[in-house]
Amino acid sequence: MIRRMRGFRSLLLLLAGLALTGAAPVQPGAVDYPLAPQAPQPYPALTFTLDGGVRGIADLTYATQYGYRPLRLDLYLPPADRPVPRTGRPVIVYVHGGGWVIGNKRQPDFHGHFLQTMAALARRGYIVASIEHRLREEAGFPAATQDAKSAIMWLRKNAANYDIDVNRFAIWGGSSGGNISGNVAVSCGVKALDPVFSVYTPKGATPPPDPLAGYSNCVQAAVAWYGVFDFKSLRAQAIPGGDANFDEPTSAASRYLGCAIQSCPADIMKAANSVALVDAGDPPMLLVHGTGDTNIPYGQSVEMDKALKGAGVSSRLLLIPHSLHGFRAKTDDQSAADMRAALEATFTFFDETIGKGGR
After folding, report:
1. pTM listed for this prediction
2. Among 47, 125, 140, 223, which residue carries the largest CB count within 10 Å?
3. How many domains does the chain have?
4. Contacts with 312 (C-beta within 8 Å, 6 or more apart), sequence order
């Protein structure tokens, strides 16, 4: 009985409070906004800040292919007090590694100094876009290359929103990201590697236009760390202790291509082998590789450098003695020194290529 009295008293107090405030109990399922048709509303931007005033915008969707997850990128922007060139800021598109099967746009690359590296570039005046792409078990070649191209096109489409110079784009990646970066760099105008727009369209309806149509996916510079540029040469170039079965159907490279390397159709190999696409119109490239790499033989970068120079393209090759995949060495101090050499060469290359020319 006492419990019932207490409960009744609480209810009276609640009702009295509502009467005094003029509030009314919220009805379950009540909708307090108009339901007239509206245009889609973007989700509020997820922003963050890093050392030195670097600004970030996370999880921007750059492409949505029908049947796949939305593809996103993170932007790292220079400090707000850094003057914007009249033509806009140069852009670096960063592509993560992971054997085409793992990895993400926030992968702890650079010996765990990923955010510090993104921020260092942004402080120098670059906009850095770290992108996702479809992985091997989602879609094999050429999906990852096409996705990177879509990201470049999306950034150009949104140039005015982020103070982007559409004529100063570079792409950079390591390992599988180096392969993708090299493939993008030498395939400007190659239709077989252009993104393919797909969207759900109800039966009988007219498909909507491609929102990225008309925007270029070409770049003006490229950096590839320990990348694959000629799948057919991998086995012959392999060094002792590495993966000597590159052309087996179960190898990472074969599964990415969708065929055993030595028996892949000619059209696939031509599109996948960056050395086969090189021509005089390609942008300058920096190739960095450790001579002790047992994952991807450094002969790949030597071969790519030779192909570029043979076509009259500006190419720089930095071989780091004895360094392993990811620029790892026998000691932490040597690993740090190898990584520093690779980063300093990369930063200098960007400064001398896309870093120049803004007004």
Report:
1. 0.89
2. 223
3. 1
4. 280
